[in-house]
C-alpha cells in the first residue's frame, strides 16, 4: 500500500473512532463540550474534507482505487458531522410539534439529518440558540454533497480515460 493510501486509511480510522465517541456523547445526559467549541471542531473537520476534495479534483490522473479510499474517508466523516451537529442540537434544544422543547438524542439526530439534506419537514424547529448551527449545517450539507459528487465523478472520469488510452 502506498504512503498516501496508508494516510487515508489512518484518517478513516480516526473518523470512525471520533464517530464512536460522538455517539457515546450524544446518548449521555451531560454536556461534554459547549456548542460553540463543538462547532469549531466540526468546521475544522469539514475544512480538511474540502482540502482533500480539492486536491483530488486538481489531479490529472486519479486511479479508480482512490474511489474506495475516498469513500472510506467520506462516509465516516459525513456520519461524524451529522452526529456532531446532533450533539449541538441536543444541548441547545429543539422545538417539537407541540411547541415543547425536546432534548432527546434521536430527535436531535433526526433533525440533523433533515437539516443537512435541506429537506426541512417542519415537525422540529431550532430554538433561537440553535438557529445559527442549523444554518451552518444546511450550508455545509450543500457544499459537502456537491464536492462529494463532483469528486466521485472526477475519479470515475479520470480512471476511465486512463483505461481507454492504454
Describe the structure.
The protein has 166 residues and is mostly helical. It has one domain (35-160): Orthogonal Bundle (Helix Hairpins). The protein is 73% helix and 4% strand. The protein has 5 helices and 3 strands, in the order αααββαβα. It has helices at residues 3-26, 35-57, 65-92, 105-116, 131-164; strands at 94-95, 101-102, 125-126. The protein has a 3-stranded antiparallel sheet with strand order 2-1-3. Helix 3 (65-92) crosses helix 4. The radius of gyration is 18 Å and the shape is elongated.
Q: Class in CATH? A: Mainly Alpha
- Can you list the strand order of the major beta sheet? 2-1-3
Q: Determine the strand fraction and express it as a percent band.
A: under 5%
- How much helicity do the residues have? over 70%
Shape category: elongated
- Looking at the overall shape, the CATH architecture is Orthogonal Bundle
Number of helices: 5
What composes the largest sheet?
3 strands, antiparallel
Keywords, please?
single chain, 166 residues, mainly alpha, Helix Hairpins, 3-stranded antiparallel β-sheet, 5 helices, 3 strands, 4% strand, elongated
Describe the secondary-structure layout:
Layout lengths: L2 H24 L8 H23 L7 H28 L1 E2 L5 E2 L2 H12 L8 E2 L4 H34 L2
Antiparallel strand pairs: 1-2, 1-3
Amino acid at each position: 500500500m502506498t504512503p498516501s493510501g496508508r494516510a487515508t486509511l489512518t484518517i478513516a480510522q480516526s473518523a470512525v473512532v471520533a464517530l464512536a465517541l460522538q455517539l457515546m456523547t450524544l446518548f449521555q445526559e451531560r454536556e461534554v463540550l459547549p456548542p460553540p467549541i463543538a462547532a469549531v471542531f466540526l468546521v475544522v473537520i469539514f475544512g480538511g474534507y474540502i482540502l482533500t476534495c480539492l486536491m483530488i479534483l486538481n489531479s490529472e490522473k486519479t486511479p479508480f482505487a482512490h474511489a474506495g479510499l475516498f469513500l472510506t474517508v467520506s462516509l465516516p466523516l459525513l456520519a461524524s458531522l451529522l452526529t456532531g451537529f446532533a450533539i449541538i442540537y441536543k444541548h441547545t434544544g429543539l422545538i417539537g410539534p407541540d411547541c415543547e422543547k425536546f432534548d432527546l438524542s434521536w430527535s436531535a439526530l433526526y433533525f440533523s439529518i433533515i437539516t443537512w439534506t435541506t429537506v426541512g419537514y417542519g415537525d422540529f424547529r431550532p430554538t433561537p440558540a440553535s438557529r445559527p448551527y442549523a444554518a451552518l449545517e444546511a450550508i455545509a450539507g450543500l457544499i459537502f454533497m456537491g464536492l462529494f459528487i463532483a469528486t466521485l465523478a472526477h475519479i470515475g472520469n479520470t480512471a476511465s480515460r486512463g483505461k481507454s488510452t492504454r
